[in-house]
Structure of Aminopeptidase:
Amino acid sequence: MKLKVAILSFSVFAYTGFTAQNIQNNPGSNHGNRFEQLGTILPTPNIYRTASGAPGHGYWQNRADYTINAYLDEDKRNLKGSETITYYNNSPDDLDYIWLQLDENQQSTVKKADFPSSSTLPKASNDQQLRPTELPASDNGYGVNLEKVTDASGTPLKYTVNKTMMRIDLPKVLKKGEKLVFKVDWNYNIPNRIKMGGRGGYENFAEDGNDLYTMTQWYPRMCVYSDFHGWQNHQFTGRGEFALVFGNFKVNMNVPADHVVGGTGECKNYDQVLTAEQLARYNKSRTSGEPVEIVTLDEAKKAEKNHSKQRKTWSFEANDVRDFAWTSSRKFVWDGMGVTIPENNNKVMAMSFYPKEAYNLYRKYSTKAVAHTIKTYSEFTIPYPYPVAQSVEAANGMEYPMICFNYGRTEKDGTYSEGIKNGMLGVVIHEVGHNFFPMIINSDERQWSWMDEGLNTFVEYLTEERWDNKFPSKRGPAWTITDYMKLPKDQLEPIMSNSENIIQFGPNAYSKPATGLNILRETIMGRELFDKAFKTYAKRWAFRHPEPADFFRTMEDASGEDLDWFWRGWFYGTDPVDIAIDKVTIATPDLETAPREAKENKYKVDKPAQNDFEDISKIRNREDKNITFYVDKDKEAQDFYYRYDRGQEKVDNTKEYVLKTEGTEPLTQKEKDKFKNMTAYQIDFTNKGGLVMPIILEFTFEDGTKLKDKSSAQIWRLNEQKVSKTYYFDKKLKSIQLDPMRETADIDTSNNFWSNDGGNTQVSKFDLFKQKEAGATRGASNGRVNPMQAAGKKN
C-alpha cells in the first residue's frame, strides 16, 4: 500500500506548539532573543562597507611594495637583510607616523610582547625546562637588531620600538594619494624552531649535520591601516597571526651554493642557479601530467655530504601578495608538475620540497595534493590567480602566499602508517588552502582567527571529501564537534573572541566555525544556495580586507536567507544543540462527532480609552504652544481592531458588530471510510541545549517503510524552549528518530528516539467533522475570528 501523509493538512487540528495559553502559563520564559536581528551588534554600514556585505563605493586600502636583499649565514645561523619599502597612502587620512611589525622580537626574552599565562608545579619536567628562573630575564640574543632606518635619500628617520611593533615618525605628513619610500637594514639570529617553537627558524638534522630553514616573519613588515581599525598594531604573541597589506615583492636570497630555495612567487633566474639537467627537468615538469623530480633524491643525498663555501643568489618576484616567505636547504628533493585551473585557464606550477626523511610520502602525494587543493578551492571560491603553489615538508604546518610548510615523515625504513599519510594529506590541503583564506581573501588574523582558520578548515573538509570519500576528516562533520560543545560553560568562549583570549583554540577557531558552515550548507540553506553565497563572499573580498560583518551580511544578501539567528547562536554564543523528544500523543478521529450550528456573537465597541494617569510628557506637550496635535477622524475604527486583537471586550454602546462562527456537518460514509485508518501523532520537543536548529525526523512504520521530514529552525521563533508538531498518517508508527544522520551537532542523542512501546506516550481522540463552506468567517489556522472580516458585518 502506498504511504500517504498529511502534514498539518487540517487547519482545525494543526498544532505547531505555540498558543496564547503557552505565553500565559510561561510568562517571559519561552521567548528570548535568538531570532532577533543582530542589529547594533554589527557595525553601522557606511561608504566603505555596505549593509549588503559588499565593499562600498568609498572602499580603500593601502599598499606596500618591497625590494629585499637577504643574506643567509649558515655558519652563524644569522639572517642579514636590507629592504626598500614603497608605501602608498590610499586612505582619506593624513598620516604623520606609520607602524611596522618586528615579529622576530617574540623570540627574544627582553623584546617580546610578554602575554604571561598562569603556571603551576608540573608532575614531570625535562632538562630544557628545569633551570633557575632569572628575574629579570637575561637577553637570549634573539630578536630583530635594527641597523639603519632612513628615507630614500639616506637621512635617518626617528623610530620607536614597542616590543614587536615599530613606529616611524615621518618628517612630514604623508597625505592622501602620496607615497613614502624608506629603507630598513636589520639582522637577527635564526632560532631553532624545533626547540624554541615558532613558525620560522631552522631545524637541524644531527645525523648528516644539515639545517632546513623556513624563513617566515623574517623582514620588517607594514601594519594594516584600515577604515575599521586604524592601525592594526596589536602585539604579536605567537598566537594571533597576521594582518598585512598587499603589494609587489622583489626578493634576492644569497645562500650557500649547494642549497635549494623555494619562495613566494616565481624564481627569475633558474638558468643561473640550476644545473643544465635540473633546468631541463623543470621545463619538462611544466607540461607533465605527473610530478617530475627537478632535484632528485640522489642529488639531495650527495649535497648533504658536502657543505659548499660558495654562494648563489636566487631572485624571486611576486605580485599582489600580502607576504613573502622562503625556504632553503641542501637536503631538498624538489618535484613539480603543471596544473591548469579550468575557471580562468591559469597555468600553475604545483611543486614540493622535502628531505629524504619524507621522500616515500611526499614523492607520492604532496604535489598531487597541491594540485587537487587549488583546483577544488577554485570551484568553491575564486579561480586560483597565482602562477605557483608549493608544499614544503618542514615538520610543522604554516601558510604563506604560494608556499606553505607541512609535516609528514616516514619511518627510517621508508614505511608509514595510514594515519601518518592521512595526517600529511590533511595538513597539505589545509595549508595550501590558506592561499585563499587569508592570503587572497585577506582577513585580520590577529583579531579574528576563525575568519582564516575556520573558513579554510571548512573548504579543507570539502576538498578532503573530493580527494577520498572515506577520508577521516576530524573537522567539519557535525557529529565531530559534540565533545567540545558539551564542555562546561566555563571552558567555552564564543567564536567571536579575540585570538589571544581563546582557551580551546583548535575547536573554537578551526572546528566550530567549519562545522557551522557545513551545517549551513547541508542542513539549513542547501548546497546550491550556500555555494552561490559563499562564492559571492570570496569574489567580493578577494584581495581586500573583510571583517566578520562583511561575511555575515554577504551570506544573507546573496542567499535571501535571514541567518541572524544562526550567527547569534553559533558564533556569538556558547549554547550547545540538545533537542529532546519529550512525549508523543497518539489520537484517532471520532467519526461520529455531532454537528455544530453556526453561532452569532455581538460585540459593542467603545470610544478610545484614556489612561487614568497622565505622564509628564503629555502634560508638557499640551502646555507647549508650538505643538499642534493631529486629529485622527478614523480613530474609533482603528481602535476597534487594536482592542479586539488583544481580547479587550469591555465596551459601551457606540457601535455594534456581529461575528459568525463556523458550523459543521456530519461526515458521509464515504468520508468516514476515507479517514477511518487515519492516526494523528503530536510530538512534543524541548530545546534543552539552548541553540535552535531544524527538527529532522525519520518515521519508521509498522510495515517497515520509512519517511523523513524536516522543519526549519524557525519553528522555534515563538517559543524557544518547547514546540510540538502534529502529523496525520494512514499507517501505524513504530518509531521516531530525531536527527537520524547526526547533522545538527546534537550533544545528547539518548533523548532523540521514541518507539510505540515506550513510556512517553499518551493516547486520545479528536473530533472530526465536515466544515460547512457557506457563511464561514473563520480566520487562519489558529482558529481565531478575523476582525477585518467581522468589521463588514455591521448592524
Remarks:
- The chain is about 20% helix and 30% strand.
- The chain has four domains: 1-56+441-574, 61-115+133-186+218-236, 246-434, 581-588+665-767.
- Residues 391 and 404 are 5 Å apart (CA to CA).
